[in-house]
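Reviewer comment 2.1 asked that we show a complete input and output for one of the modelled complexes. We chose the nicotinamide-adenine-dinucleotide case, as it is the one discussed in the main text.
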Amino acid sequence: MNVPDFSFESRPMRVVFRPGASTAAPAEEAARLGLRRLLVVSGRQSSVTARAVADSLGSLCAGLHAEARMHVPAEVADLAVEVARAAGADGCVAVGGGSAIGLGKAIALRTHLPLIAVPSTYSGSEMTSVWGVTEHGIKRTGRNPAVLPRSVVYDPELTLTLPVALSMTSGINAVAHAAEALYAPDTSPLVALMAEEGVRAMTSALPLVAADPEAMGPRSRALYGAWLCGSCLGATTMGLHHKLCHVLGGTFGLPHAETHTVVLPHALAYNAPAVHEAIAVLNRALRTDNAPHALWDLAGRLGAPRSLAQLGLTDDDLTVAAGQTAAEAYPNPRTVTMGGALEVLRAAYAGQSPRIEALT
Ligand code: NAD
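Response of the prediction step:
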């Protein structure tokens, strides 16, 4: 094999992965980082878990703020920054999914307080320096090294309570990061290794999680896959699939993980003719000769949604979403025209099996 030209940046982050770590490792990580007053942030639904983390910090805990909301509304970020300042916090611990970690990042962006992340879904935000804040219905995102968690504590026990439906869609959300990383302009051999292993781990674990949500082995494997897929997301720039999901979530309010699950097979089928090597890697990981179809089939077997209509999108929304997607510049291996974006959206709307067409 020829080694492609590449650049790869190692990020200053420590990862701790072990069952039960969420109530021991945050204090250990705080000590390593020299932090003494930590504000714990979470969403309301994760407040019991976050309380356990806060209690485990003992005198290092400067408070618990359980007000995180999806897509980090600006007023929620403003309040959290105020709370962190008023508490005299010298660091934050974010406990929960991408929404809670997003709030921790919003605090870090404005205050530069170091962040420790304790993820409880597979969305991967903990591995990236990408932040997002939503104001007047528009989500602004950016990259800033200040928001990259300094430590990430993965505790598979935390995911035991993640409902099966969300476990499945969150898991496929993770697979989407690895899939697009394989054809990103800044991909690299290490990213390809992480992506292949991440997809293999996640997709082999999900049916077992669905069959027995409280079995630790599959839960650990899924979270391990999420770490690898999140690492791919953090190391590369995403393309058409993530852009489509950003538009569908931002403009039409569609749910994050479910939207990724529905769109992925179709975005991948659109790009497939232009990315043979990436598809070959995915085929290997999925043990198939048609990765887009295998992912569509997997979603069906896991009882996950497969059509945008099921998520509440209307036929009239498709043209608007396609226009927004085609209008913006982002790297994608195939040019994305209005017609191309509409083709992907129509297939995802109908929930039909993805079709790979030869490039003309
Ligand atoms: P989420 O954080 O919104 O969580 C979804 C729901 O699941 C919430 O109600 C939450 O309370 C609940 N939940 C989370 N963990 C649970 C558990 N273990 N048991 C029971 N319930 C649990 O969803 P998400 O998909 O993790 O994150 C989506 C958000 O993260 C979006 O806003 C997305 O844009 C953002 N995100 C950002 C990045 C990034 O790099 N910046 C990456 C991925 C996602």
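The chain has two domains: 14-159, 164-350. We note this here for comparison with the apo prediction described in Section 3.2.
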